[in-house]
Prior knowledge:
It is a single chain. By secondary structure, the chain is α+β, with helices and mostly antiparallel strands. The protein has two domains: 2-91; 109-336, 2-Layer Sandwich (BirA Bifunctional Protein, domain 2), CATH 3.30.930.10. The protein is 41% helix and 18% strand. It contains eleven helices and nine strands. The protein has helices at 2-18, 22-33, 38-45, 51-90, 109-123, 137-140, 173-182, 222-237, 290-295, 312-319, 333-336; strands spanning 127-128, 134-136, 165-167, 186-195, 207-217, 243-247, 253-262, 279-288, 304-311. The strands form two sheets. The chain has a seven-stranded mixed beta sheet with strand order 1-4-5-9-8-7-6, sandwiched between helices. Strand 6 and strand 7 (253-262) form a beta hairpin. Helix 5 crosses helix 10 (312-319). The longest helix is centred in the N-terminal third of the chain and has 40 residues, at 51-90. The N and C termini lie far apart (85 Å). Phenylalanine is lined by residues 170, 172, 250, 253, 256, 284-286, 307-309.
Amino acid sequence: xxxxxxxxxxxxxxxxASAENLDQMEVVRVxxxxxxxxxxxxGKLMGKLSAEDRxxxxxxLNGAKTSLEAAFEIKKAAFENVALTERLKSEWFDPxxxxxxxxxxxxxxxxxxxxxxxxxxxxxxxxxxxxPEVETEFYNFDALNIPADHPARDMQDTFWLEGGYxxxxxxxxxxxxxxxxxxxxxxxxxxxxxxxNEEVDPSHEHTFYQLEGMMVDRNVSIANLLYFMKTLLSGxxxxxxxxxxxxxxxxxxxxxxxxDIQCMVCGGVGCPVCKxxxxxxxxxxxxxxxxxxxxxxxxxxxFGGFAFGLGLTRLVMMRYLIDDIRWLQSGDLRFLKQx
Length: 339
Ligand code: PHE
């Protein structure tokens, strides 16, 4: 039996020596050293030997096992070494090469416009406010005189969250927070992100930006509103913008208006941005409804105000002639590098 073991070990060693890759080695390993391999078979025969023979056969078996295992490890390491050397020939880098220069970032066009409008209004005495993106039904709807059965509350338009919270559908809740915080008289703007549960297409996004504005004082009129709106538009476009005012309905203003500007992408001829109408709804506005003033803790018999909700995203599209709203949040560097 000892002779058989030694013969097996010798043949296995030579097969290992002539193996050309790890796969071939593995075949030999399973065949000889595996749990059901030839060495294991010898192990099973041990019980039939006399005690004396068993000791010497056991030694031979262990010796064969140890030397085969060692041979495997050595050969395996050699193969791995060859593979590594091959890899290093094609994969390498030179740590001494200087970097290719730092690519400077730039402000997103939305941020640029926001900054411009902020400084414009700041120079006219307006405070810049922030509000939460996760709002309560009270601030987003009730306080703005939007009754429970108003279509704007429809599940289609609002992303509802657990516990009666929602993603604000407009920046108008900041009007109420602003009145509560600052009291009258006040001038404030509130830029920010808003959310609507809408199908995305070239002119609609579920996430976009608005800039809310509000002024509350004694004797505020539509003339004040128009003055600020015109100052705003000429400040942004730095050229003549054709505008039109239409009556508009929003529960939180009375009277309410839609200020449209002629589409600057197509010059009024009609394109996807203006939905072929030649006009783009840019700026809903109006005089603050007495109920809203009350919700903000202000006496409507003493104070009045105007409010507007500028579509910041739309404005950016008009100013830079962007024909698809989806570019803005695409994160596409080819788009962003142009600003
Ligand atoms: N909050 C309105 C909207 O998102 C816009 C608006 C603001 C209208 C202020 C009038 C006054 O559609």
